[in-house]
Amino acid sequence: MKNIAVIGSGTMGNGIAHVFAQNDYKVNLIDINSEALERALATISKNLDRQVKKEKIDEAKKTATLGNITTYTNLEEGVKAVDLVVEAATENIDIKLKIFQDIDKYAPENCILASNTSSISITKIAAVTKRPEKVIGMHFMNPVPVMKLVEVINGYSTSKETTNAVLEASKRVGKIPTSVNDYPGFVANRILLPMINEAIYALFEGVGGVEEIDTVMKLGMAHPMGPLQLADFIGLDVCLSILRVMHDGLGNPKYAPCPLLVNMVEAGHLGAKSGVGFYDYSKGMKEAFVAARFSN
Q: Strands 26-30 and 84-87: what pairing?
């Protein structure tokens, strides 16, 4: 397994491409938007520069890594000769199902089809293909070049051979994979998102302010980032989407998203990517301050 296709060149997609390319895989990075592909390559180059500065890699490795990446705007061309496809498109079930129908049509018969979804059913995705035994989840953590975990999600029909191949590929790119089963939220988000949602409820009900809630979790629970700041980093729209998947899939009211979260998403306050969420990012990520809506 040496030829990889990554579909989607956003934050997760370019990070996945970076990691595979740095570990000597040939990577086809696919996106319908050529400008998005240019931005992705610029981001990867910038992140490699950071690694060079920290002396984790040298200039030759940076050059080789970038040389391992080829960009495509045509999905058929990008997947026609690869061993593994990792889909990292937007967290929308209709978009993902259409992408997997197309990948299944154009990728080689022996190719494994993986999704980086953070909550959508792998079994449901696999059902639109003619190779459900070769469909699996590869849930990378953000930022991909830094975070070690890959949550490997087995769909109902995923074969052991597919699981073992993906576990091995994850290890070869320096990750620590953990195999889990296909239920709403998997493990990572089934535990993380209720905590974030409860933090939003604590703010909504006036239990504490933004900084106070985040400080309690950072200093009291040794979390590197408070839950409200983390929600901003993930994207409040993504948090809402995952909570709705778990609420619909499990039917338990404890997963119902907080009304404040719903209102913020409807208002377009999505966190770091929109410039404002629980914090204001107008001065940059490192200079974030509590958003005016929540300041006293």
A: unpaired
Give the Cα separation of 22 and 145 in Å (integer).
10
Of 96, 120, 127, give the one whose Cα is nearest residue 238: 120
Digit-coded pLDDT (tens) for 119-160: 899 999 999 999 999 999 999 999 999 999 999 999 999 999
**Cα–Cα distance, 86 to 7 (Å, whole number):** 6
Tell me whether residue 211 is exposed, middle or buried, using C-beta atoms within 10 angstroms of its C-beta: 0 to 12, 13 to 18, 19 or more.
middle
Catalytic residue list contains 34: no
Q: Please state the pTM of the whole predicted model.
A: 0.90
- Is 109 annotated in the active site? no
- Looking at 14, 170, 189, 241, which residue is catalytic? 189
The question of whether 151 is a catalytic residue gets the answer: yes
Catalytic residue flag (residue 189) = yes
Catalytic residue (choose from 28, 87, 121, 139): 139
Catalytic residue, chosen from 9, 115, 116, 151, is 151
Q: How far apart are CA 167 and CA 160, in angstroms?
A: 10
Instruction: Please state, rounded to an integer, the average pLDDT across all residues of the chain.
Output: 96
Catalytic residue among 14, 68, 116, 118: 118
Q: What is the DSSP letter of 28?
A: E
